[in-house]
Amino acid sequence: LTPSHGGATRTTCAYCGVGCGVIASPDGQGGATIAGDPDHPANFGRLCSKGSALGETLGLDGRLLTPQVGGVEASWDAALDLVADRFRETIAEHGPDSVAFYVSGQFLTEDYYVANKLMKGFIGSANIDTNSRLCMASSVAGHKRAFGEDVVPGTYADLEEAELIVLTGSNLAWCHPVLHQRVQAGGAKVVVIDPRRTVTADGADMHLALRPGSDVALWSGLLGHLFGEGCIDLDFAAHVEGMAGAASAPTLAQVAAATGLTKQELRAFYALWTRTEKVVSVYSQGVNQAADGTDRVNAILDCHLATGRIGKSGCGPFSVTGQPNAMGGREVGGLANMLAAHLDLENAAHREAVQGFWASPAIADKQGLKAVDLFRACADGRVKALWIMCTNPAVSMPEADAVRAAIRNVPFVVVSDIEAETDTVRLADVALPATGWGEKDGTVTNSERRISRQRAFLPAPGEAMDDWRIIAEVGKRMGWAEAFGWSCAAEVFDEWTRMTALSRDFGKVLDLTALEGCDYDAMAPVMWPVGGPERLFADGAFPRGKGQILAPRMGEMPLRDRRHPFTLNTGRVRDHWHTMTRTGRSAKLSLHIAEPFVEVHPADAAALGIAPAGLVRIASAHGAMIARAQVTDRVARGQLFAPIHWTGETASTARVDALVEGRVDPVSGQPALKGMAVEIKAL
Ligand code: SF4
């Protein structure tokens, strides 16, 4: 691979965690034509509708091009001095935990690394959390419980080499389309586990429309079945703890009662999983975004650990991440409960090693505020200076109305973004213009642990600056010029690769040291551990010593009450991304689904007088929204589905996260963005 290709530039898609390689050819007028990179190992030239339309999302309309202080244009020096002064004064008066950063899975790894270094090593607080908390935190926690480290054991090639692929809590055809194409190319049997009959389910060999919240019961029942059928790898079991706990797995009758599936459906699924050696179980937000999300993840991992179906060709559990760099952020410690390099905040030796590497004046010694708690701390006055970077929490957080009010309550709010007018930028005291996709250099890590370069092929517009550089400039102004003195993204990456020696020293898998001093410009996509095996754990060598099976459980069902008798699930549509600040620029992408909707079952629609395409109001205890009814039996009676993308400030718009309660998984802190108790009425 070479970085340029006939005048074009090889880079990586801006959107999902598949991490497709893209070839961008600038048109000389600020735009570019886009093609899939035939040599990139994630996609081999394929692109989905969103990736193909990236060229239409470029351009300067609506961009934030100069720093703004109090809504008035300011110089970079004035804005950066103000940010550094206010953070320094706040820390001096109220301590390091009175400030917080809220960052993004769309940050490049270099941005994440610098933000985490400033907060945990120099400010001395762990109050840095990320919108990846809404996306993948339960997978992180599940991996750590089972393996001792946040590691996806398999590779995308397993999707082509498997004989059976189970897609659970994943509408892969719409949310990770290129991986869905790879599944189809492999020809494995496909089982979809999803309360809703999605497009992915339409193409599957089996669809299990389980009741929302019964995932743990379903997978725990499978574990019991595997033991009952003698389908346990006894050699591999020597490397796994907790095998005895499987004796308490729920019976088939208990699983049928919990899931609403028939015993015949369950027997068919369990028999297929049991007799197929090469099984990949893919899971995504339908698993993670729940109050028992971590238990759901572990219930899936348990079945693979018990059978030794892990780390081998065509075998393994597979977490597919939502965002382009959810993995890279996790690696450098971008979550409030982690140190960099997969090390632990609670471990004194780990803290000492990280502080020593950075030669920093401080090191956070306890967990910081996770996303939902972070904005609650803004509401009750504990956070007095907040810096939001590259994300739009005024729309995307649970209890979005309360979060908007919480941000307003913070005495000093900084927002870095590429857009001038997001719902969150409007709440900023200081708005800082950042470079966006195609304008900056850095790296991202995709769902199979593959690091790829994002490369600039357009000049930075106006006065926009790379996020890592903005943060470093503030770090310098806070008094740490040497520690934040990099001149380019390559130097940041080089420091990061050197830091992963700590991870290796403490027995972790994450190791990028072979990339130290590499030719950053020419860097080809590479998996970590760099130079190590691509598939992990087939030999039973887990970072925690032995793998861990957790005792089977029944899981946690969503809440319902008499006033809110419906269960609302949320998700993506095929052609839009997050709050549409980028995909909303492409007219072509809005052709697929042009407006917000809610799916409602025909029998419920008839009972409530809801006409097809009529407007409905959906309300929870936390907020309300209006959308157009799509009357369909894709959802079961008593269930609704609405997309997450549309925004707005009032209950007459379709901002679904205003309805979501900030209920979190107690292990991961990930909010339950699925399974809300709501009411629905015709308008
Ligand atoms: Fe981009 Fe994901 Fe589509 Fe690939 S599958 S082109 S990474 S949005």
UniProtKB/TrEMBL annotation:
Q: Which domain of life is it from?
A: Bacteria
GO biological process, alphabetically ordered: cellular respiration; nitrate assimilation
Q: Might you report a single GO cellular component term?
A: oxidoreductase complex
Q: Which residue ranges does the record assign to the 4Fe-4S Mo/W bis-MGD-type domain?
A: 6-62
User: Where does the UniProt annotation place the signal sequence?
Assistant: none
Which GO MF terms does the UniProt record name? 4 iron, 4 sulfur cluster binding; metal ion binding; molybdopterin cofactor binding; oxidoreductase activity
Task: Recite the UniProt keywords alphabetically.
Answer: 4Fe-4S, Iron, Iron-sulfur, Metal-binding, Molybdenum, Nitrate assimilation, Oxidoreductase
The Swiss-Prot or TrEMBL record lists the needed cofactor(s) as:
Mo-bis(molybdopterin guanine dinucleotide); [4Fe-4S] cluster
Q: Which family does it belong to?
A: Belongs to the prokaryotic molybdopterin-containing oxidoreductase family. NasA/NapA/NarB subfamily.
Query: Would you tell me the protein name for this molecule?
Result: Molybdopterin-dependent oxidoreductase
Q: Which organism is it from?
A: Pontivivens ytuae
